[in-house]
Amino acid sequence: MKKYLISLCTLVMLSTNGYVLADKEHDKAYNEKLDKSLMRIIQSNDLTGDPLLNRTVPDINSPKAQLGMDLFFSKTLGGDFDSACVACHHPALGGGDNLALPIGVEADSPDLLGVGRTNDDALHNPEVGPPVPRNAPTTFNVVAWDKFQFHDGRVESLDKTPGANGAGASGIRTPDSAFGVADPLAGNNLAHAQARFPVTSNEEMKGFNHTEYTGQTIRELLAGRLGGYGDEADVLDNVSYWLEKFRSALVSVDGSAEELITEQNVSMMISEYERSQAFVNTPWKSYIKGKTKALSYEAKKGAILFYTASSEGGANCSSCHSGDFFTDESFHNLAMPQIGSGKGDGEDGSNDFGRARETALAEDMFAFRTPSLINVEVTGPWSHAGAYSSLEAVVKHHLNAADAIENYDDQQLTQADIRNLDQMPANTKEALDSASFALENIQLSDMQVGFLVEFLKALTDPCTQDRECLGQWIPDAEERNDPNGDQLNAIDQNGNLL
Q: Could you give the residue range(s) of every CATH 1.10.760.10 domain in the chain?
């Protein structure tokens, strides 16, 4: 009897092991099938996995990028010394601010970034909630954009040659020039042009004590402040700090502040820093290069859904999120929830008409630029107004926007007292009912949504989640501290350095 029991146990173990082995063989075969399908997709879409191919990316250790970093983190460029570029675009926060809507000037704690940043007691914030109307776009991989900057494309390359990074003989249009007309002061590329505008926004950086200044004169005021040659009441105590940095970066030992510290050079340095933030070494790139184990089963299934047309059972994502940078650099009305203060559009001014504000075309109503999906995992909250706090929610909106809007849960917002939440249903329904609305309803299971999310996570460069790696783009709080006391040494809501 004992011998029989031993034999029976052995038989069960053999059967179990056999099943496991068979299951592994099945997984291997299925995995190979997935790889073959994905390779066909990769080839048919001419994908290389590298959106920076043949582009020149500034080295973060170059003198210009280093100076750009110091300027980016300096509250000297805030009109009232209480905001900096980094207040809305910190590398440790995905190149954004981890908020649905930004808080620039008059923050209750200027150095506190991300969740917990408020301006409830701000003198010029009569309404509760953040006054900036749109979500802060990530600065990561800004070097890869060829056509537009900002959600509505109001900084636009008139020469949209792929790989040009906004440069070209045709020039760049900005809000300082008429639509379709090049701005002679736009700079050398899209990032340079974009970097000139946050300082002109009252809510973002300019503040409310310089309302008599135009966009150009506030830029010149700030350059003079840095160089010590501007308004005597506005210059810094230690102007040699910045002059020596500009002399070094521009290799001009004897250059004067008036010659070197110009508004053009300030924005150029900032753009060099921004353009150095190139993070594209993703699992997806590794997979395309031949490392088939770089993606999980789930991510591979998600990739196939991503690239498959809806008529064939897929999610049709690549119709807009195309190419190696995962964007067509165009504009589409997705009827994303319209929260926040809006841009002054609609009957009560709480709506945002998007790209139509620039073009005045009906087909551009409520349309916003297709974001890149590289590093999308770390760049939330998502949408032009930051209305969604999970990738799953974003995916489900794309599958059935009407259902997502009807069941929108404002408890997901990372900020309290967002403006005009009561207007969100009506404002968003206007976009949903517009002839420009671009989404179709697609039926996918929750499991398939999960597969898509896993694929999106495979588009993340590990450096963007590694504080030590990101440290190259964050000035040391002690070693590089501005003697004028204006370096923004960011902390989180617990008082920890970011």
A: 63-277+467-473, 283-457
